[in-house]
Specification:
By secondary structure, this protein is an alpha/beta fold. It is built from eight helices and nine strands.
């Protein structure tokens, strides 16, 4: 019961923090591991190049050309592939699972620096994670859960990392000390995080300890947030 109160208080704190005007520009130091396995510290925030700060908000500047006028400096615009994925997922996939936006994820990351009971999880394949992810996220590929009988060792390691105890006699799972997790993948069209969440629910992971970042890495980048790749 005490843990539930703690989790609820932490959730409210995250929401209040996310609602602070300008919170995304403060910068949160995050310890993470780069693709070479080195421990590094990155500052996570919304990054707006100096030449991008005075662009007029108008139809001409924002929506012409490839959704950006030719006069907009290159540093202020990006091109994304928007035709991948079979479906766009709804804002809610379960009535008991909270869907996060960018500020909620940023607040979650900030709290992660203090509470080891929180974990941000990138469920994409390892090569995607190593190429680019959100600083502070750990990689737990979706197929380690979806195909857990074929990846028994990896699945068990993930469970232990998440604070889940495994009974060696009957392989039952004890979620008493399970971490509160936020899962994401490539974008709002990406099914990998949804698939992983479905498996987590099937194995009995407490629904109140699961959060979902629907936007994924695509929307994280689209809002100018820090990633592990420059």
């Amino acid at each position: 019961m005490l843990y539930k109160y703690f989790t609820f208080a932490l959730f409210l704190s995250s929401l209040l923090l996310a609602k602070e005007m300008g919170f995304e520009y403060e910068g949160i130091p995050v310890k993470t591991t780069d693709a070479k396995g080195n421990s590094v510290t990155m500052t996570v925030k919304r990054e707006i190049p100096k030449e991008c700060k005075n662009i007029p908000v108008s139809n001409t500047m924002l929506w012409t050309g490839n959704y950006a006028n030719e006069k907009v400096p290159e540093a202020c615009k990006s091109t994304y592939v928007h035709t991948v994925g079979s479906h766009i997922f709804p804002i809610s996939i379960d009535q008991d699972i909270t869907t996060y936006g960018e500020l909620e994820v940023l607040a979650f990351i900030k709290h992660m620096q203090t509470y080891d009971s929180l974990m941000l999880i990138d469920v994409c394949k390892e090569e995607f994670y190593n190429y680019r992810t959100i600083p502070g996220a750990v990689n737990m590929p979706f197929y380690h859960f979806k195909e857990r009988t074929s990846f028994e060792f990896e699945f068990e390691q993930h469970m232990k990392t998440l604070g889940v105890s495994i009974n060696e006699k009957d392989d039952s799972l004890d979620f008493t000390h399970a971490k509160t997790i936020t899962l994401f993948c490539n974008g709002p069209w990406c099914s990998l995080s949804v698939t992983t969440i479905q498996v987590m629910l099937e194995i009995g992971y407490p629904v109140e300890k699961i959060k979902w970042y629907r936007g994924g890495i695509q929307e994280w980048l689209a809002t100018g947030m820090t990633s592990t790749r420059k």
